[in-house]
Amino acid sequence: MRRRHFEAFHPLCPHCLRSGAGEWHLVLAHVMAEQDDDILSGILQCANPGCLHEYPILGGIPLIVPELRRTLGERAVELLLRDDLDPLLESLLGDAVGPDSWFDSIRLTASTYGWDGYADLDPTEEVVPQGPQPGAVRRCLARLLELSPGATGGLVIDTGCGAGRTSFDLAERHPDALVLGCDVNLGMLRLARRAGEGRMRYPRRRIGLVYDRREFALCLPGAERVDFWACDATSLPFAPGRAGLVAALNLFDCVPDPRQLLAALAAHLAPGGSLLLATPYDWATRATPVTAWVGGHSQRGGTAGAAEPLLRALIAAQPGLTIRGEDPGFPWQTRLHDRSAVAYRAHLLAAVKQP
């Protein structure tokens, strides 16, 4: 966790925010390891004497989430898993643990996001003319920025940042901005931090349980102005109304309450700030209960189950938020392995908060 980002974003205790106890800042209670301005391990503590909740900093990533116990119970292995195993030994373990296991799920996610985010910088990556091309999420971001000309920087929050390449792109696009990538997937944040340190190492899935270790150096412009924190996008631990830009790419249909997410993101925008939103409405009940879906059901209603008019109405209902640009069918491909990819048509919306 960079001290510069900690001071600029000045995080609040998410437990106090959620419980209605008010806006209490977090303080650095303990620093166990630090390099330059980067705190590698430590403990943040709520300044509220009636709370004193603590939040760990592990591997440079602060975990500032309302339900820390639950998050660690579900995802701690992603942050603590060894990444120095010999590729052959890792292959044997993958075969032994088997498909559909937690180990294979972590590797598959790292393969999908690592490939799309960074394969364009991999000197060993072969171009497949008929196949998907890396950088789909970056092309989506570039299109959203076209739809929102003049989007300001300042403090930039990239929610659901995944492997972090969009966070680095936002830093390059806004040379005066501090960019904070937020996600609850600790494995992806670990990969994003590694990219910011100038190296990439991820398991690239070839087919089935066969993965190839990819490792190469990186040099990403603006990396020194990017940091990555574990935060819940629906309960961001910041004072509202301060961000010049908030991005949420392929996150809207991956949270338990999309309406709460939209309200939270809009609340964090400063006057004149921009919201960049992309979603394919690929609902899954394991992430979002059907009653919370925006479209995709209740086709007997006035919108006949369509999602797009509902999302537009939800954005228009946010105080001061106005749609600035829209692309209803932007192509987005996700690679699964050498012979499989998923193609989406994402709905892109750029909105601005009126001064």
From TrEMBL:
Q: Which InterPro entries match?
A: Methyltransf_11, SAM-dependent_MTases_sf
| GO molecular function annotation | methyltransferase activity
Q: From which domain of life does this come?
A: Bacteria
Q: Which residues form the Methyltransferase type domain?
A: 158-276
Q: Name one Pfam family in it.
A: Methyltransf_11
Keywords recorded for this protein, A-Z: Methyltransferase, Transferase
Instruction: Please list the GO biological process terms of this entry.
Output: methylation
Which protein is depicted?
Methyltransferase domain-containing protein
Q: Name its species.
A: Siccirubricoccus soli
